[in-house]
Amino acid sequence: MKTTQLLATSLSLVAGLTLLPGAANAAVSTATGTLGTTITITANCLVSTNNAAMNFGSNASTATTNAAASASFGVTCTNGTAYNVGLTPAATTTGGTPSTTGAGTMKNSNGSSIAYNLYQDSAHNTAWGSTVSTNTESGTGTGSSTTYNVYGLVAASALNVPAGIYTDTVAINVTY
Fold first, then answer.
1. Which residues contact 111 (CB under 8 A, 6 or more apart)?
2. Among 16, 30, 151, 33, which Cα is nearest to 87's?
3. What are the Cα distances from residue 14, in Å, to 9, 10, 19, 35, 44?
4. What is the C-alpha end-to-end distance of the chain, expressed in Å?
5. pLDDT tens digit string along 53-64?
6. Mind listing the domains of the chain with CATH numbers?
């Protein structure tokens, strides 16, 4: 009987401890706070040519027709960014300041030169240049590439030069 009574007393004691307030649930607290996040996106534009070149091909110095060629490039600007695209041939017929009107000069290693012009349209009516709002194209960035075409024209009369390879470099200027 003593064993039963001892067991009953022990069980009552254990049961009583578990019913004490907070005995089964040890004090648990949660501290909270906040963490701010920030990122700054800057306006940016990229020009992609994929190594394109305007190649007027092979022409006889006695040709009686103009030589024409075309090329294209892409401009990618930050979404919502307004921009202007202009083209500036490096060399001019006088060898001075680069042209702002799309008129350039291809030269060979002997110093001979061939004049050419760059246009925004295949009919050769609207010249490319680098004077904003005059002979540039404007756009607003979308985050995706926009393709721009360049049409070149060499007058037949400019082809009467010594045989050789004539080159120039055209700068693509994007202002934003």
1. none
2. 151
3. 9, 6, 9, 46, 72
4. 98
5. 999 999 999 999
6. 47-52+62-175 (2.60.40.1090)
